[in-house]
Amino acid sequence: MPLLSRRSPAPAILATLSVLGLLVGHGFASVSVARAAENAAVGAADGTATAASVAPSIGERASVKNGTVPSPSALPTTGHFLGHPRLPGTRTPARRRAEAKKKPAHTSGPLVQKGIDCAKEKCVALTFDDGPGPGTPRILEALEKAGAKATFFVVGKQAKAHPEIVKATAEAGMEIGNHTWDHPQLSRTRAADVNEQIGRTQRAVEKASGVTPLYLRPPYGDVSKKQRKSLGMPLAFWDVDTEDWKTRSTRATVASAGAARPGDIVLMHDIHSSTVDAVPAIIKKLQKRGFHLVTLSTLVGGHPKEHVGYGKGLAPGVRR
Questions:
Q1: CA–CA separation, 136 vs 127, rounded Å?
Q2: Which one from 179, 269, 272, 292 is the annotated catalytic residue?
Q3: What's the rounded Cα separation, in Å, for the pair 271 and 83?
Q4: Residue 142 has pLDDT above 70, yes or no
Q5: How far apart are CA 21 and CA 30, in angstroms?
Q6: Does residue 183 have an active-site annotation?
């Protein structure tokens, strides 16, 4: 069979054009035909883009203390969840632009526990990223049983997939934060897409629970100086990275989180079963050391400021 020249259209295309020509000639062509063709083109574009543009998988690689962020080649590409800098689906470009223009919903106020002053008492904020996951209800049960609180930074896609868990988290008195829609590296993401990532997550959480996140935790702790000024939300970092995403060890996670000091914000991930298994022991160990396990808002004194990154909370004897 002779090869087609560059000027020769493929047989399939010729056949399609012939059919469409017959439909038009007989008055059967409709908007639905054109729409089907458009959807097919969009789907093909998404399909070709997916493999080449998959973002790093979830795992907090960045260190807030030393300010380093890994290069894309150093970030993992496999795991429980793969982020994607371009939101998947069949939305047309026009619809994506419209969604990007939507402003995030108004945030709910800080969730502060009454009767606890972290400037005078020992407090630690346990935080969980990337959920909700299958093990999140077990973490909620352990926290409630111990009279402890925590903050959950949810991924929007996961919140949409598991609204009942998001609702249960809010009803349990836990604080819920925004961890973007599908975990891209924000400093490498266009401004319109950043707004979409945050706004869609805000609305998904609000729809599921009636609560709108106050804080944003940037994936990998990575956000540019320009973005920090424009995001309009307090930023939540951490100073104890348990590296549970890396070790997948219950024992190592208990040891790391259990060694927290007053005012520390502890980073964990509720999508890992090893972390879920570690939580009861972490709670027991910290409470035995005399710590209050509190929401992030309680730890920072209840008045977080926009554009400020919180990597440490209040502690007795520490002036702010």
A1: 12
A2: 269
A3: 14
A4: yes
A5: 12
A6: no
